[in-house]
């Protein structure tokens, strides 16, 4: 028998689960020999309240390893997450939604009540549309990362996370050793040419292609930040690199920050503003600063902007 493992998803898109499948052939011995999956809603039919609904409280089987993807957005998510923490010896937060809020946490930057109203009660909805409140979990005041609600033993960010890193974490746990994971920034793994400070003073919007010769190796292209594009590489955790270059950079596209802050408790927006200033770029040319937190809006980073009240004379 393998190591008992429980898997759960909260406010997520299943991209993390697809990343597990993308481990490839190495996944076969993992799921057939190494792990004994006792609970995984995405893979197997295991009811929270018993197979026939006879239970009175939510229950998840005990497991040595617990893997949770997705952030915490409603009361059901909290209940499931707390049960996972209670029943699992080691709890892993998988993916940027679980570690930093991810895309769902963009909602944190808006007024929650107004957002629900716009979603369910606009002119494009049926007349009399109401925000659902019957037999659905009550939403929380904002979207939380998992470690804001329970103790997390290992964080593995990424949108989606790197399949090779997922495999490394699993094998390291089975072999009782620390996992070998990247600890630097995307810039540290980027092979593009750097020539010092860029020669632009204002950010260029990515409405035109970056400057490079078609077909040239990625290490012959100049750094996108030095070209004046908002590349989040300096403040984003490494982990997406494959075939020698970060995924976005390999496609000649600026890093969008999907692996979360390189510093454990970092603020990607503030750190990026410093990076822009040190690169000689006028920070006032940033059109939407809060968009730098598009993947890391949990931990209180994104909050609704208070509307200014203009007093009439």
UniProtKB/TrEMBL annotation:
Q: Name one GO cellular component term.
A: periplasmic space
Q: What is its main location?
A: periplasm
A GO molecular-function term, please? iron-sulfur cluster binding
Q: Which UniProt keywords apply?
A: Oxidoreductase, Periplasm
* Stretches assigned to the NADH:ubiquinone oxidoreductase-like 20kDa subunit domain: 13-172
Q: Please tell me whether the keyword Oxidoreductase is annotated for this protein.
A: yes
Per the record, the domain of life is Bacteria
Q: Which InterPro entries match?
A: Hydrogenase_assoc-protein, NADH_UbQ_OxRdtase-like_20kDa, NiFe_Hase_small_N_sf
Q: Does the keyword Oxidoreductase apply?
A: yes
| Subcellular location field | Periplasm
Supply the name of the protein: Related to methyl viologen-reducing hydrogenase, gamma chain
Organism equals Desulfotalea psychrophila (strain LSv54 / DSM 12343)
